[in-house]
């Protein structure tokens, strides 16, 4: 039994009711005609695969059938928060690493150690968000 | 999109006056799987409320609420996963998603209701779809009804988690359906036509140990 908080149903639901849909917050280029092949290919096909904090799009397929966002730790599988479409994540890799971006090294593995300490994130998973 | 396509819909009476044979999605199941009769030993009783009018309303909550209040005399449920009922309990509106509600009325009322709602909604941005032919409603009663549900769905049906007036779309026997609890003792299952036979046979199988009976 693994429960996910649906921000639209406003309650925890069985994992079986959900489907993951890949990386979240991918913005469609405003003017596709003006894109280079590389830019358009990047938009269509290329996705980040971080070790640690990942923002994902999920759908409550057997429920309200709405898409929403999930901040998930790809190392521990822990879901740190769920939030509606159009909202921004409150838990990010930068935030968990104390705002320190370590060059071009992904900070996710550093952030991972502070995952359990994020009270706000835990609260949102338990459905205690306002 | 031009105004005419956005605001005008062809509305068909799917129950014409002439005699056209119509069957519930479970007609075939009754024929092939039978209907165990209700006995003294039955601790779960199943009853189909066949051929009811089912309608999907989509749009903004405020404008739809005003329209259904005017036409039906009661409003949309205020919270997610809840149900609002008319005083006599014969008509209901259920929250399905933030912009989607299921209205169930006694069979035959849906055509008039749809026209009245369209009139009340005017130029508002909304959609009404008559889905009566696509699904059916089962009622489940008896002191073991909750146990039967516990065997079938991962959703928590304990009274603390599932009070009267709640309704959810959820997993049921690896298929899915709408599960709702309009009164203290009665559970309702809204089945899609394509899942109806499977779910019916599942219910008979799961209910066998409670001597499940099917009322005609
Ligand atoms: Zn949901």
From TrEMBL, chain A:
Organism name: Billgrantia antri
Name recorded for this polypeptide: Sarcosine oxidase subunit delta
InterPro entries from the UniProt entry: SoxD, SoxD_sf
Pfam family, one: SoxD
TrEMBL record, chain B:
Lineage: Bacteria, Pseudomonadati, Pseudomonadota, Gammaproteobacteria, Oceanospirillales
Protein name as annotated: Sarcosine oxidase subunit gamma family protein
Family matches, as Gene3D superfamilies: Heterotetrameric sarcosine oxidase, Probable tRNA modification gtpase trme, domain 1
InterPro entries: SoxG (IPR007375), SoxG_het (IPR006280), TrmE/GcvT-like (IPR027266)
Pfam family, one: SoxG
